[in-house]
Write a structure and sequence with these properties.
Shape: globular
Radius of gyration: 26 Å
Structural class: alpha+beta
Helix content: 25-40%
Number of strands: 38
Length: 700
């Protein structure tokens, strides 16, 4: 008899490591444990071993392993990356320092941009110059190669970024330097911009290449360490890693291009939400993901989400791809448009200089964590506030695995309330509301600030803390419908198992539209299609299991930023070029409110999005929990602001199958707690999603 097989998804956050295993029939098993920042792969190995032992699954039954990680993001935020050297064209040594004249805090005269990841004494110039048309203006000074190698060696750099002016149109000089350094300094990790992001934008291309070089040694060590741990467990399935764009890629490719996984965790939750919306016909969603450190929001239009060609990393949490930039390092990599704020369950609460409550962006993380975790934390957090308000089980979380120090939490809020001269309950509810106000900025950043009315969307709440705040946040945003999927607290780990294998390829194509023929554009497209097909073939996808889409970056001549226009067909003729023009003008009018059909157009780049079509559907027809654990149904006193304290029933999700229940209500689960406020009605659908809607009289 053939043993059933399972797919395993693992998501590492700043506080928790989430592990989800799904069977062939949609049965889901899960494990949530504290992350191990000293070596994140340790928690993965321990959690996988424990989960497989609990449900009696052998390593041989695991046919897929997908992973999302914050290793890349944390490396930049904590400034713990590799020691990097930069090789650039003579005269361009200070590109990183000059950057762009942008600041996220226009009127803050004390604001300072983050320091470059490569200090000036590790930036080296070479004699060479290539023109904007690709012609060699100044030949490459190969006579200085040995001196360059000695200088890099003396700098003790372990990784080098090579970014020469106009290398996106002619990579010859970059490639010659890269070949020399790889041969002369074989221990050095070399990243050339022409291999990574061959596109216009001198500062952005340099920043992207430097960030990649900064991350490569760390991510390589992490991926290899994780691979060894999986082998020790006996899991032979290939290691796949979630990318910021919403697809998955093999670990061995991610090692060379770690910039593709900077937002892998949040992307998994968004991808899972979008796939669920399409599967169940949920319509337009605001996906709200609140973890232990940050809260994220994304808009999904009827199962599709927006992907930005660029993001910023290493600065403060960002409110999506709006015009407010300059807080971090630009990275030219496709990234799901996610608004992020520094408000999570571990966000620290304090009293500011004006005597009010401040929440975040500093977080307690997993070490020491909230006061309630009993691991040495003394400053109250959002999680502690929710415990004080009766929303969380006062004894334990994660099915009893994490015992809580309720008395320690009460003492922490006693101190905070004393500083504020208010009652403890008021202090706790104030922390809860201020966290909501911060998270509301993220929701507005992807909706109302883009001309979309959030009240017309359904709010999907995921993450360990998302369902706790969903109803109160929805009331603030005038949202009247909420959906909380099964395994909501670990939904990013589940969502990544719905993702397809994906590769995003790019070819610089800086040409005036009126000077470019169909044959020239077709040649660039064919080159990308050939590369994409070869990548997918090496991963076992036959030609009929490959989906390759072509997109063109276009702008009006003289504009700064292009728009990405999808091609209906990869075959280009005069009619296809004319349609491309029309599609660009229409997209420009939709995006900016106007079009200028008489202005000349400029091609910028050709892109290919390459998907491997799976043999079996990635999302099961139904989803049900296989190892549901509960501390037992009960009644708990909970505080709901103006509605005061209520004796609130505490039930499991399965009890909702008996019929709709009116709030106040607390649905307690292994990985999260769903707080249904007074005036809301909760019910369950056939996919095991919890739906909450506002009663009409309560909404008025």
């Amino acid at each position: 008899m053939t043993q059933p097989t399972y797919r395993l998804g693992v998501d590492i956050g700043g506080t928790f490591t989430d592990i989800v295993m799904i069977g062939e029939t949609g049965e889901v098993f899960s494990k949530k444990l504290l992350s191990t920042p000293r070596d994140y792969s340790e928690a993965i190995e321990n959690g996988c071993r424990e989960l497989m032992a609990e449900i009696g699954v052998s390593a041989a039954q695991i046919r897929e392993f997908v992973h999302a990680t914050t290793v890349a993001t944390n490396t930049i935020i904590e400034r713990k990356g590799a020691r990097v050297a930069l090789v650039t064209t003579e005269g361009f040594r200070d590109v990183l320092e000059i950057a762009r004249f942008r600041t996220p805090k226009l009127y803050d005269i004390d604001y300072r941009k983050p320091d470059p990841l490569v200090p000036r004494d590790r930036r080296f110039e070479v004699g060479e110059r290539i023109g904007a048309d690709g012609a060699v203006v100044t030949p490459l000074d190969e006579g200085g190669f040995e001196a360059l190698a000695q200088a890099i060696e003396a700098s003790q750099a372990e990784s080098v970024a090579i970014t020469l002016i106009n290398a996106h149109v002619n990579a010859e000089h970059e490639q010659r330097i890269a070949r020399f350094l790889r041969q002369r300094l074989p221990e050095l990790v070399v990243t050339a911009s022409s291999d990574l992001v061959p596109q216009i934008g001198e500062y952005e291309r340099t920043s992207t290449t430097v960030v990649n070089a900064y991350l490569r040694p760390i991510v390589t060590r992490y991926v290899e360490s994780l691979q060894r741990r999986l082998e020790a467990i006996g899991i032979g399935a290939p290691l796949m890693i979630m990318q910021s764009s919403g697809g998955i890629a093999p670990g061995h490719l991610v090692k060379d291009q770690p910039i593709t996984i900077i937002e892998s965790g949040p992307a998994a939750g968004v991808l899972g939400g979008a796939r669920l919306a399409s599967h169940l016909g949920l319509g337009d969603l605001l996906v709200f993901d609140m973890g232990g450190t940050t809260a994220k929001a994304t808009l999904a239009d009827n199962g599709t989400y927006s992907v930005s060609p660029e993001t910023e990393v290493g600065g403060e949490p960002v409110l999506g791809t709006r015009m407010i930039r300059g807080a971090g390092y630009p990275v030219q990599v496709p990234t799901i448009d996610i608004a992020e704020v520094g408000a999570g369950g571990g966000s620290l609460a304090s009293v500011d200089s004006a005597g009010g409550i401040r929440v975040g962006p500093r977080s307690a993380g997993s070490e020491p964590g909230p006061v309630a975790y009993g691991r040495g934390g003394t400053q109250p957090t959002v999680t502690d506030a929710n415990l004080m308000l009766g929303y969380l089980n006062p004894q334990a979380l994660v099915g009893g695995d994490l015992e809580l120090d309720h008395e320690g939490t009460r003492r922490a809020f006693e101190r905070l309330a004393s500083e504020l001269s208010v009652a403890e309950t008021e202090a706790a509810y104030g922390v809860h509301l201020i966290a909501n106000a911060t998270m509301l900025r993220a929701l507005r950043g992807v909706s109302s600030e883009k001309g979309r009315d959030p009240s017309q969307f359904t709010l999907m709440a995921i993450g360990g803390n998302g369902p706790v705040h969903a109803c109160s946040l929805a009331e603030s945003a005038a949202v009247e419908r909420i959906v909380i999927p099964p395994v909501a607290g670990l939904y990013s780990a589940l969502g990544m198992l719905f993702a397809d294998v994906e590769h995003q390829l790019l070819h610089a194509f800086y040409r005036r539209r009126d000077e470019t023929g169909a044959a020239e554009l077709q040649a660039a497209i064919d080159e990308l299609l050939s590369r994409g097909a070869a990548l997918l073939s090496r991963q076992g996808f036959a030609a009929d299991k490959q989906e390759l889409r072509i997109e063109i970056d276009i702008k009006y001549a003289g504009q700064t930023s292009p728009l990405t226009v999808p091609l209906a067909s990869a075959c280009i003729d005069a009619a296809a070029l004319a349609k491309l023009d029309d599609d660009f003008h229409a997209l420009h009018a939709e995006t900016f409110g106007y079009a200028s059909p008489n202005e000349p157009l400029q091609f910028v780049a050709v892109k290919a999005v390459c998907h491997g079509i799976p043999e079996h559907p990635r999302m099961p027809e139904r989803c049900r929990r296989g190892n549901e654990r509960s501390l037992g149904a009960s009644v708990r006193r909970a505080y709901f602001g103006d509605a005061g304290w209520h004796d609130t029933p505490v039930i499991t999700r399965t009890e909702l199958a008996e019929g709709p229940r009116q709030g106040p209500l607390i649905v307690e689960e292994y990985d999260t707690t769903c707080v249904i406020r007074p005036g809301w009605v909760a019910s369950l659908d056939s996919w095991n999603c919890l739906h909450a809607t506002r009663r009409q009289e309560a909404a008025q």
